[in-house]
Amino acid sequence: MNLQNTPLQQKKHIRCWDYCRTSNDEWENSDFSSLDAQHECNKAYISSQQQEGFVWTGHAEDGGVSGGTLNRPGMKTLMQAIEAGEVDCVIAYKI
């Protein structure tokens, strides 16, 4: 194959959502909560991967909801976006 005559491929954008969750309700009474910290960390990671095509396109969060169930409003929003083909990658601070 002659690489000199091969057209350059455009880099694909990887559409990333970040997901944050906390099981306690401390986030309600705080100017800067663990949800905020998770969101900032997730966005910083996505930004650090721009050379790989990562682009932040959305965010979902569940504050004060147990991780023992998937029946969470933010998780449902995230899953709907995935099912609609709007998400290529999910970034979460911890699993």
What this model shows, in words?
- The protein is flat and about 40 Å long.
- It has helices at residues 34-48, 73-83; strands spanning 14-22, 54-63, 89-92.
- It has two helices and three strands, in the order βαβαβ.
- By secondary structure, the chain is α/β, with parallel strands linked by helices.
- A three-stranded parallel sheet has the order 2-1-3, sandwiched between helices.
- Helix content is 27%, strand content 24%.
- Residues 5-9 have low confidence and may be disordered.
- 18% of the residues are buried.
Spans of at least 5 consecutive residues with low confidence = 5-9
* Largest sheet descriptor: 3 strands, parallel
Order of helices and strands: EHEHE
Distance between the termini: 44 Å
The helix tally amounts to 2
Topology, number of strands: 3
Strand order of the largest sheet: 2-1-3
Helix content: 25-40%
What would you call the structural class? alpha/beta
Radius of gyration from CA coordinates: 17 Å
Shape: flat
- Kindly report the average pLDDT value: 86
- What percentage of the residues does DSSP assign to strands (E)? 15-25%
